[in-house]
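Sample entry (579 residues):
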Amino acid sequence: MSELLSLEQAPAGLGAALRNAGFESFTAIQQAILDPELAGRDLRISSQTGSGKTVALGLLLAPSVAIAAATAQPKKSRKSAPAAPIALLIAPTRELAGQLGRELRWLYEPLGARVLVVTGGTSVMQERYQLSTLPQVVIGTPGRLLDHLKAGALTLDQLRTIALDEADEMLDMNFEEELDGILGFAPEVRRTHMVSATFPRAVVRLADRLQQEPVSVQGTALGKANADIEHLVMHVRQADRFNAAINVLLRYPEDKTLLFVRTRTETVRLADELCAAGLAARALNGEMTQRERTATFSQFRNGTIRYLVATDVAARGLDVQDIGRVIQVDLPDNADVFTHRSGRTGRAGRRGTNVLFAAARAEFRVKSTLRAAGVDARLVPIPTPEEIFAAADERTGESFLRDLANQADEPDSRAKDLAERLLAEHSPAELVACLLKRETQRSQGTPKRVRDDAKTARHERSPREFGPKGPSRRRPQGDFITYQVSWGGQAGADTRKLLAMICRRGDVSSEVVGAIRVSPKSSTVDISASAAQRFERAVARPDKRNPRAQFRRWDPKAKTKPGAKAKRPGHRSNSARCA
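Predicted structure, serialized as tokens:
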């Protein structure tokens, strides 16, 4: 589509709703989705987080939703009639499903369309009652949608469009079986859309199976949506990362900040430590009830709390426009996770900052992640207590001067009398110093003394720049032991993903990882003999994230052979590295 459309050309007359919501023009993905040549096609919608994919999807569905809403029966409970939506949207998490519902409700309000969200963690009976009001659009998580379909409270007989949002996350959470179950209820003649910030190979394979002659629609290329985000790397030892987070927040207290950690337990631990340091923070994780999660998200959204600590899964669907800073306290598993995390800031044209904590020894992994994400980052030091106090003093002084300039010509008589009495007994400098100290103590937490890991690392060559232009990884030296892993190319494995999983599961640095060979059904990896014993102990532990991936020493006399040409991660400029 060469000619740019105005909001007044929005389908189903939704231009006014968009303007009321603050839109001035379509985003790149919204403009692309309205191309008349895409009518009737299955789409693979790819655009970075924060680029307006949800509204784009809503505009895509709007014409059929408008017709269904105009011919709908009055809103009333009919226990004998199951819900028969014309559009079904599937999301991997409750938060993302809720976000989709909020966006589509305001968008479709002028059409009189009913939008219903069904997710786990809520009352099944209440949802069945809501389904009996016959919504035109149903949004839900895979498990709960399949439950309603099996119970007969939901039918897909009238379905015209089905859309999978965040399809990559859907596969990461092992929802493929539930998706197949849902699609088994759907008519064969339908439109099937896949929406994702990225399309890794596993998602492409799923899309090939579900879609008919699909067309790829790209709004913002990888890396471009990060133009409004400044990426920073801080060398932080693992043991110091919570204290480093405290210092960053104390240095920039005005920023609404989302902090990412790896586990549910650590969301609580870090939130507690932040609170103990005088920073009002809350945790968001999958162990919380839906009511607790909704309340926490609402507090963060409206600014009651400024700091939220979350896992990757819990943070899916968090669409808060004014998040000024993201801190990746624990390293992301890959570039896709990095992109999703950092995309929580720098939204709707605002500037944002993404901070990545990493031990100095993880330099190669960081470079590879940034290279794969297509972004550059600056290496900066952890804020020191002296820097934090100096910045706090500057803010306090500016605040007092601003209040002084804005006060009325004649100050409050009571305050003036008190000031004159105090000035008669003390010097102006003493009084101002006392007031400033009191204000600082009330608003300032306690910074921590944190050593920069780059200064204590065994190598002192920490570069000042990271990203696509960074140097390649050094090849490991010495003797190696080969291990077979039960994860192959047919299940979505590639060199980058395997390296990330090997480092995580084996608790090893990429410096001890040699050749990786990917075969259709399994793969092999060479591990330095010096790290083999520790690697074997680590991979023997159960892994909830990838329970099917099992390791064993490779027997060269076995009949099954890897059958793939060896690749060293360092040979490819876009390979992943970890530590």
